[in-house]
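Example (one chain per record):
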Amino acid sequence: MRKWIACAIATLALSQAASAQEHDHAKMLREMAAANGWVFAQDGVVWAMYNDQSGERGGSEFVAPNWWMLMAMRKTSAGMLSLEGMWSLEPATVGADGYRELFQAGEAFHGNAIVDRQHPHDFLMRLQASLRMPVTTSTGITVTGAAVGSPALGPIPYMHRASAFDNPMAPITHHLFDSTHVSFGVVTAAVDHGPWTLEGSVFNGREPDEHRWDFDFGKMDSVSGRLWFKPTARWMFQISTGHLVSPEQLEPGNIERTTASASWTVVNGNNVESITASYGRNDRAGDARQAAFLEGAKHFGGNTIYSRVERTFLDHAIADVTVTSFTLGGVRDILNRHGYESGFGAAVTFYATPSLLDHSYGPHPMSFQVFFRLRPSVHMVNME
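Predicted structure:
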């Protein structure tokens, strides 16, 4: 488990192509690529999950959220070249309209907004190339082009955060923080110097449509900027802002998104601890939405305990309402053989809602999941 998290953080740090997110293992991968030619790394996960959401707007189901990512690196005469691909079979394993999740909202299906469900990710989640060109020993310039990728906006996407590795459910605040992590058309430039990295992106800000197996290219007329600060190997901070042109299919208008986050991660032998806190805001003409979350995970021995607290403001037909959720879950690792590691886990989420929503969700909405988790042990293969 410790090795998996350390290597996953390394892969993520390299995929962001920014020294402000550098990790000791990321430096190790860079050195290996410089010395040995191509270096490959992978990570991914499959959850076989029984999901139960309470009330008339809920229900129960068996679904399998999943993703897989492959990365290749090589030092060239111009700098360090990184190639990345990321895929998901969720359109088939969770259904075209996604899995059940109370108070979740975002994207559309058959002309209707997806509400109380988390949409499936597209089959192709990332396809990009990055080149980091050193200027001095402590400064570099990175250029990234992505047919599908993530612009410089928001915290690290939830499925890659060390504080959420073992949580199979998407945050209900997803569309105020990291919903742009699957954008069809992104160009990003970054300058890193010591613990600081400044990034800027031009991208297609429209969210993917319901046809999950194809490409959803559009004009790259959205822009964003992000500043990272990593004072130590444990701490990481970011602030970002973006202008998204018509991101929602059923809600016309542009969005100004602003986020700020702080994360702390420490790997100490077989023990891993991580915490992430973030605030996000979406501003639209005559409307504003805010959200915040705090999540954490602790791995000790063969056990993981994780939690997430979210507070989001919803637009109800009668009045704006506030929903707070609290999740507590755990995983027990059972096998680590033949390049795979697995575990059984369970989680429960409680929601605090105003009485205005009692007729729709009941007075005490809640949900729970029981799941089996399978993922490859991250491994690297050197090729001359």
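Caption: The two ends are 29 Å apart (CA to CA).
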